Amino acid sequence: MTELDETLLTRTINALGSASFPRCLARLLQARIDCDCLLMVSYRNGGPAVYLFDNLRHRRELLFQRYLNGLYAQDPFCRALSHGLKDGVYSLRTLARDQGMSPDYSAAFYQDTGWQEELGLVFRLPGNQWLMIFFGRLQARPFTPAEQGALRNHLALVRALCHRHWPAGAGPLAQSPPAPARVDTLVKAALASFGRGRLTRREAQVAALLVQGLDNEAVAASLGIGAGTVRNHRKHLYAKLGADSQGALFALFLNHLITGEGERT
Fold it and tell me: pLDDT at residue 137 above 90?
């Protein structure tokens, strides 16, 4: 993870429970994937789409006048979620083909937005809601499989952050975030002490990189070891910490950070 990525992650963690969290999360994600604009909404099957954040600069009025005023029901992402779409990263082109995008939606709305390419990250929130984060490009430049894979690698981290911020599907956390001036120090200390006393030195190094969103190959490259070795360390550290996924590991790290255990160890 680069220094910029670490700074953005620190700011996002600091924003947990505050109104600035969606904006910080958007900046963290846009540092990982090249896009012109981003939209974040929550959705419940049979209910309205709820606006959370956007940084649209072109035809922004369409979002409020038309999309959130009912047209979201024709969105291929909402249609796919209503039919059991799993958590993941999807291109609009793929869902439009699989779900059958409404001609009216395409001709009378989507073309007006100016978006030429769209990628969506979707996952369940508590309260039987989904979070949909849309990445748009104003040029006809498709999101490559590599870009989609890079975003998919961050799904567990983003999901854990959002579950922490929206523990009941909506509303801020009761827990106040750490003071801004101390957050960078707290995050570094928490990364250094996470798993101390339960993990070997190498397992702790692997765990610290996993909670920063790296996949097995990136962890291997960072530590100069093989991906198979990383997989073995990952299996062992999951067992020792009682985690069954990267998202669960990140949730443990957030607890470690927020409760201040990193300072006391």
Answer: yes
